[in-house]
Amino acid sequence: MATVVGEALLSAVVEALARKISTTEIRELYRSKNLDESLLEKLRPTLLSLQAFLCDAEEKQISNAAAKRWLDDLTQALFDADDLIDDIATEALRRKVEARYHQSVAAKARKVLSSPFKWPYRKINSKMQKLFERLKHFEEAAHNLPLEKGVSGNVWRATPTNSAIDDSAICGRDDEKQNLKEYLLSEDAVTDGCSKIGVLAIVGMGGVGKTTLAKLLYNDAQVKDKFDVKAWASVSKDFDVFKLAKSLLESITSAATNLDNFDALRAELQKNLSGKRFLLVLDDIWNAGYVDWTNLMLILNVGQMGSKIIVTTRHQDVVDIVKAMRTCRLEPLANEDCWSLLSKHAFGAHKCNELSSNLEEIGRKIAEKCGGLPLAAVALGGLLGTKLSSEDWTKVLNSNIWHLTVKDVQPALLLSYHFLPASLKQCFAYCAIFSKNSKLQKEALVELWMAQGFVNVSQNEKSIEEVGGEYFDELVARSLIRRSADGEHFEMHDLIKDLATMVSSPYCKRHDNEMQLGNLTEIRHLSYDKSMFNHFGELDSLHGLKGLRTLVALPLSFDNPNWSHYLANGVLHELLLALKQLRVLSLSNYCNVTDLPNSIGDLKHLRYLDLSCTQIERLPPAICKLYNLQTLLLSNCRGLTELPEGMGKLVNLRRLDIDANNKAD
After folding, report:
1. Which fold has domain 505-657?
2. Closest CA to 526 of 469, 484, 578
């Protein structure tokens, strides 16, 4: 998949650097150690100058190889710069915290401030000089490309969100919905007499609206009254009968299950379906073997006559395997319907008649470029609703991105990303660490963004959690994140997920069978599936990941708190020694983790640590050296008996999650 470096990724780093070098703590550190403060003064305008070039470079990289190389190389330089500045900021914070912690004993306070702490103060001037020269080189290169200075999109207007399905915002599918609804309400069963279940298939290309139509049917009031039990399961490329049965059971009971024996799981699912008329949705089946489908139907064939299954798929061979009694083939929307959908999401249904003729003319041309895909029309509608001027709409219409050919990513969707404000771009791109069909929780995702410094809060403003929540709501409003059918969590459409993967590569990776890691030195955020790599030792060597900022073992605890996995002996210690730049570390559900080595204290950049659902028995005193730590998750750590003294040093800690199952005070 092609790589398009995002201006927002770099702009966010630049903004963070400019803020950090201006803080009182860093300035005081420089003065107390007689460091060259003039380097800070020279660095700031250079950073701001680079930021001004980023927006133009992001679009020119599509057709200009030199601009793309400039962005690629600048990305690495800015990551290195951020690590250095964060080192300095953390040392300034350490001095401040230690002095405050011991201020009741004056002698100790003087000792802390005057002792020769082993930190390379004398090397800072030379490192900062090299950094300044390196970034100055990129500024000069920008003039030679040439790149034009502009303004990065940092200001945005929040769009009101609504998690409910809005029938009025669905265009061009009335006939399909009515026909399928009539079938669902009928008493028909399959014709071969071997099953009580009727199968309905919705088939069409990605982004054409299959899942949306299935949701409308699933949530229809008459359909709800017809069926005793309803359940929704996302399938995607992995048609696994055990996982499907588990997903269906959890959807029915609205509770996670820790059943890992297939017979026990089958019996429990059948218990909940037996003698009842049920409606099941199996969303986005990519492939289904005849044997697997037959085995699933044998489990489900305990319901009452008239039970139904809705299958959505992109592939006709899936329709043949499931022996659908009714098939609805969704075609792309007509241009008029596409414009209607786009305009409703841009303006709201109550404002459709207030459009100026000029804006409508431009909007209709944009709608034609969506190729009849509702997903593209909705995403662009969400974008255009924040830019209500002819100039802005014309810029979208004439963007070079329409001419970009990228496998699996529609230009309209790439445009919806390209014109996002910088603050939202980086948050969206970071979602690439999650696999398709991952269950996203708002609070947890916001905490991950906070840990990476993506959430920018000005003085005397809302809390960082509130601002991060607004970022999340805005991505929902723009249809880049959507609420699941059951309303219990959030998710991303497969095509939107492909978009996040493209714009975040090569810096954000998932380690699985489908994705190769590539150049380890470029990777900053990495996730892997615990079910595939049950022992961390099975993973490729991580020694090349010196700049890694995120290491997340999926699923996170909020995905499924009942699955337990094992971490190979000795690997955790090696891990902490190797990955000194980590901001996020999640090791939830590793049931054999009983303690942390003291080397955890060396991860001075760490902001987020998840040890939930482990057998951790103690936290080492060294954890109190994590002055930047914001989130510490210890839920379901039943063996944890106490917390170390000195937790008061964690001055940035915003969430300490210890539930009733913990023994620690």
Report:
1. 3.80.10
2. 578
Residue 606 is predicted with a pLDDT of 96
In this prediction, residues 222-247 reach a mean pLDDT of: 87
The identity of residue 156, as a single letter, is W
Contact 377, 367 (CB under 8 A): yes
- Torsion on CA atoms 422, 425, 426, 428, rounded to nearest 10: 160
**Token duo for residue 355:** 């459009």
Cβ-contact 257, 245 below 8 angstroms = no
In this structure, what token pair is assigned to residue 339?
Answer: 């414009």
**Contact between 203 and 330 (Cβ < 8 Å):** yes
pLDDT in tens, 496-512: 888 888 888 788 888 76
449 and 455 Cβ atoms separated by less than 8 Å: yes
The closest of 144, 18, 123 to 78, measured between CA atoms, is 18
Q: Is 657 exposed, middle or buried (0-12, 13-18, 19+ CB in 10 A)?
A: middle
Least confident span in 38-47, 146-155, 354-363, 516-525:
146-155
Residue 573 pLDDT exceeds 60: yes
pLDDT tens string 258-313: 787 888 898 999 999 998 999 999 998 888 888 889 889 999 988 888 899 999 99
What mean pLDDT do residues 636-643 have? Answer: 86
Q: With respect to CATH, is domain 173-329 assigned 3.40.50.300?
A: yes
Residues 6+ apart with CB under 8 A from 51: 10, 11, 14, 15, 152
Residues 6 or more apart whose CB falls under 8 angstroms from that of 329 comprise 203, 204
CA 485/CA 495 separation, integer angstroms? 18
Nearest Cα to Cα of residue 653 among 102, 93, 105, 113: 93
Amino acid at 128: M
Instruction: Please report, for the chain, how many H helices and E strands are present, in that order.
Output: 23, 14
